[in-house]
Amino acid sequence: MSYFLSFAFLFVVQIHGAPPEFLQEEFGIDPIELDSIQASNMSDVSTSPPPGTSKRAPQSIIIGVRKGGTRALLEMLDIHPEVAAAATEVHFFDWDENYAKGFEWYRDLMPYSYPNQITIEKTPGYFTSALAPERICAMNSSIKLLLILRDPTERVISDYTQVYFNRLENHKPVQAIENLLVRNGVLNMRYKAIQRSLYDVHIRNWLRHFPLEQIHIVDGDALIQDPLPELQKVENFLNLPPRIVSSNFYFNQTKGFYCIRSDGRERCLHESKGRPHPAVNNSVLQQLRAFLREHNRTFFRLVRRTFNWQ
Ligand SMILES: *[C@@H]1O[C@H](CO)[C@@H](O)[C@H](O)[C@H]1NC(C)=O
Ligand SMILES: *[C@@H]1O[C@H](CO)[C@@H](O)[C@H](O)[C@H]1NC(C)=O
Ligand SMILES: *[C@@H]1O[C@H](CO)[C@@H](O)[C@H](O)[C@H]1NC(C)=O
Ligand SMILES: *[C@@H]1O[C@H](CO)[C@@H](O)[C@H](O)[C@H]1NC(C)=O
Ligand SMILES: CC(=O)N[C@H]1CO[C@H](CO)[C@@H](O)[C@@H]1O
């Protein structure tokens, strides 16, 4: 698995030319990653395209959130015969140096698709990017956006855990989560993991450019518990015929997660490297929860929907 992660890491650096230092901190690996390497098979890049296919701009984008389960969502949607999923996180709309390369560069990173297929890419960094909404709107103002969210407090801890292990692997100093969350007794609002969990702040930015009807929110906690109902909602949102069925999933007792079965292939999902989350000091945790509660209230009002986060 660590082989897979470093492979994926290298792959993104090579293809998209991003500064490694930035990546080490910011490149998000989902809580739910794939065991297999299929998602980033480099040899696919050079195989000749099937007749009748071409590369198309995405008609739908999974915009985030980091650590929300974006990889799981994309892989599960990829079961659908009318979905063509991009293999890597493109970071076109959130990284200036990629955006400067232009639209043709972006389209070239999309998979070959048939005319009846919907191309989907996912880059979790878009949701929290200040510029991504207007840039995506400039490309296609009627594009369909998918946003997968989970409990904002859990997301903070998961975000911390990922960066913590990345830093360990890169022999960089690490800090206890409490020291990052709290400075001088108050919540440290400059901590990016907290900022990224302010869903209301970020969604406002998207709603300035897109009507709420164009943004479908997937409940990340529900997707992991029972994938099919959440995926059927997405099929409906994307106007896809219902093709994902319960036999595409089987529960692996050992892992405690669902595995995907499609086209005779089996792929399993699991917690990122099985990393345990740290036990967070309870009073700090309560402080964080109380703070996010206000934000999630505002968020529920903005999206006219509530989520079962406690
Ligand atoms: C990558 O794709 C090629 C062609 O589709 C296949 O032959 C090869 O086994 C794949 N490699 C991995 C590591 O999945
Ligand atoms: C824009 O997105 C919509 C919704 O997915 C799609 O129907 C339309 O074809 C897209 N337009 C272009 C130019 O890609
Ligand atoms: C279930 O998960 C275990 C533990 O990761 C794995 O060894 C096994 O191959 C999986 N079984 C199936 C049928 O996917
Ligand atoms: C949790 O942190 C508070 C200060 O923020 C401290 O007073 C308390 O002793 C800590 N609790 C534990 C169990 O470490
Ligand atoms: C995680 C979190 O803060 N959840 C809260 C979101 O807001 C509702 C009220 O609208 C609270 O009940 C949750 O505890």
Automatic annotation (TrEMBL):
Broad class of where this protein is predominantly found: Golgi
Subcellular location: Golgi apparatus lumen
Signal peptide residue numbers: 1-17
Gene3D superfamilies: P-loop containing nucleotide triphosphate hydrolases
InterPro entries with a match to the protein in the record: NST/OST, P-loop_NTPase, Sulfotransferase_dom
Free-text function comment from the UniProt entry: Sulfotransferase that utilizes 3'-phospho-5'-adenylyl sulfate (PAPS) to catalyze the transfer of a sulfo group to position 3 of glucosamine residues in heparan. Catalyzes the rate limiting step in the biosynthesis of heparan sulfate (HSact). This modification is a crucial step in the biosynthesis of anticoagulant heparan sulfate as it completes the structure of the antithrombin pentasaccharide binding site.
EC annotation from Swiss-Prot or TrEMBL: 2.8.2.-
Protein name: Sulfotransferase
GO molecular function: [heparan sulfate]-glucosamine 3-sulfotransferase activity
Coiled coil location: none
Domain Sulfotransferase: start-end pairs: 58-294
The organism of origin for this protein: Periophthalmus magnuspinnatus
Pfam families on file: Sulfotransfer_1
Keyword Transcription: no
Family membership noted in the UniProt record: Belongs to the sulfotransferase 1 family.
Record keywords, A-Z: Disulfide bond, Glycoprotein, Golgi apparatus, Signal, Transferase
